[in-house]
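We modelled the chain as a single entity of 487 amino acids. Its sequence is:
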Amino acid sequence: MNIRASGYAFFHRPSVALAAVLTSAILWAGTGFAHSEQEEGGKSRILTLKLRDFKAQMRELVEGGYDIAGANPSASTVDIVQRINSQQSFNKEIFGQVIESKIIDTAKAPDVGYKTSVEVDEIVHRLANNYPDLVTVESFGRTHEGRDLWAIRVTSKATQKSGKPVVFLNALHHAREVMTVEVALDAADYLAANYATNNEVHDWLDRAEIWIVPMVNPDGSNKVWTEDSMWRKNTSGSDGVDVNRNYPYRWNQCNGSSGSPSSDTYRGPSAGSENETQAMMALVGRIRPVYSISFHSYSELVLYPYSCDGEHVPQREVVEGGGKAMAQLLPSDGGGSGKYAPGTSWEILYAVDGGDIDWMYNTHNVIPYVIELNSTSQGFQPSFSTWRNKTVNKVRAAWQYVIRRALQSGVRGKVTVAGESIDDAVVRVISMTKEGDAGQMISVKGDGTFHAVVVPGSYKVVVARGERTVEKTVLVGGDLVTLDVAL
């Protein structure tokens, strides 16, 4: 099936200074953009600001509750979505110049080439019908409004066995980011359609499972198509919740979200409060991916954990190395030799708390990434005919990279007792060449399997269950090493 044809510091802190700006009248300060709502003829603007101190002022914007659409760190610019009647102001003496203003008629739906939640339902089931030996579809939860959350599993049933490594792709945590759905659906379509003719794809699906959630936030998507094309959150409560600020790890701990329900980064009333978050957590806990990519837009970035100021993951060599490798595979839409920029969110943009990638890594040792698709010149909803195929074709290199990497340097095995798989053992993989290495701590999956991604080298693998411990030494090269352990 061809899815393309399927249709449809600025002040040096004191918060009182920030509050003074937020509560003041709109001070365009000579920018030339102070027009009435009637003159503008729309409901929102996207303002491009040229910041004087990018990192410090990005922090102020986040903590001030501004809706940040995208950014270009190398140019020190940031795009802000602002309702026409917003009382949030931008004083050029504080932030710098407003260099561009675009009017968005939010009552106008996105380009019809992009997919609604109804169309996604149809497409995922069509994939399962067209490729019954490769594709299965399941509803892994329901939204506040009762919509199904669909997961697509792509793997060869002819070689189905327990314990295949899992790669997880997901899209549309944020409702207005419609290009992300195209990337996720393209991945499913590409894998299924090429299994019979592409030797590498054949090998991937024989040896691994690819799980894809093309639309994490279908309620928000429906609102984008029927009411407000710039809607970001889900639709629970009175104002919706930012699903990607609702995961439990570091929820409301580093000024990376908002406690105000009207904010576009509202984190929700409690950690993990949302149906979508709960469903995603349950799915990830069940399938236990080795790698994950969460597709967002826009800014042309590859982000990895951790996302609060000053924090890095223990496995920097693997996690950061993978992010940098993927970024080099993704040329900028601006042309030339530019590539996507890799880094943690706090290093490149601003702190984020309650995000999915931090939760996945901390809770389940998943190696997760966010890829921010498209440039600031394209925005959330670029022309479908111009940019859809260019984007999905380019981004294939990233998700294909993590599939390959999941099947390369690492240690994978099954833990058994008296020949039976167990699910309550803990595995620690410790480098024997890196002094002071604390190692990766991995809980085995329900089928008794574990998977540690490492760089080539010598490792000690310690498997423990209660007071019973087994140690083994393994040399890892470029391939995945199998190490089964009987306790």
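As a brief sanity check on the tokenised model: Residues 216 and 277 are 9 Å apart (CA to CA). The chain has three domains: 15-104, 117-406, 410-486.
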